[in-house]
């Protein structure tokens, strides 16, 4: 795992710097919260860890039909 220190407005380039896969920018830091912006091609999935785990288990809430109830 790579851990980086960035300030608001700074970016991390993912992939080849001449033709990056995407860019992550630190938009804002407020207390213990960091706001990030992701600039990737539309066909690249970007998910929060908890949502990615739900999808991996087959529990994607966006794929529920109207007949499913909790």
Automatic annotation (TrEMBL):
Residues 47-70 are annotated as: Disordered. The keyword Repressor applies. Its main location: cytoplasm. It is found in: Cytoplasm. Gene3D superfamilies: Translational regulator CsrA (2.60.40.4380). HAMAP family: CsrA. Homodimer; the beta-strands of each monomer intercalate to form a hydrophobic core, while the alpha-helices form wings that extend away from the core. This is Translational regulator CsrA. The gene is csrA.
